[in-house]
Amino acid sequence: MNRQPIIPHPAFVRARDALVRALDTDQRGQIIFVIGLSGSGKSEIRYEAMQAFAGALDQWPDGQMPAIALRAAPTDRSRFSPKEFMTRFYLELHEPDLRWLTGRNVINDPDLVHRRADARLSDAFWIDMRRRTTEHQLRTYVERMIPARGVRGVFVEEAASLTYTHTSKDPENHMVNYMCLAEEIGITLVLFGVPRAAKLWEGNAEILRRSRFVYVERYRLKNAEDCVNFERLAVSLAQRFTFSRRNLLRRNFDLAYVSSAGVCGELKSYLLRADDLRASDGAESITLVHLEGAVQPEAVLKTLHADAVEFDVLRTPANSSTIKRILK
Question: What is the reported pLDDT for 105?
């Protein structure tokens, strides 16, 4: 079943185009961080950027593929496991899953590819591979296979998982390790994550020098252009639902904004909650009662907006007073 088409709203288009532009480089070992809040569209951006980067399948040389996608996950007692990550790396080289070539609008679940990878890793062959192979051996396999496969870009989702380390480990160490890997085999490493991923580069000049940053922006109430774009996005999403009054959502943008912090995915979720309430009531259209009932509890809203502030701090350049203080 097809999903609704992706709405190419300004924040999405700017981030997607910025990533495609950053990928168009001859720099070996480049790192690109794509940072956005949960629900900002990072998965959709990955699909479109990978397709633009890789080109048409029928143009690939036999046995080669320009890009692979994998996920970093905290699988070792809720901590990141470098060996498990290398196993996923090797899996995508050994048994590539090319579903990312499919249009994102026909994939209902962006995590489907990763769940299929989880299922494949539960196969006896891969269980035995993990048991008898060291992380170093897996890395050696990866280093050999990437050039043989013609891989130029590795796209990693949930990069913030690299920050969930055991007490004795520093997230920077993981990042330096993968930075060196990217340089050694000449690939571009693209890491998608939430603001927590900043722990991977903050305070490390070596990583920063090799990195480019793409931010998937949210819409902010204090910015007039953002307000206009958020309103247009809300109106576009509202066309998929039936409201009791044509201007009902427009007249209650405060509810939509507080429930989304200006993030497209959060806004979609809010409208779906309102529509679920409508269906539960047996009503034909969404009313103000449903919009009000779809607002999350205070604790959830506080977390959502605290995350938004964290993103804004990460996104905001140092001001003139900070620069003067540093230069003293």
Answer: 64
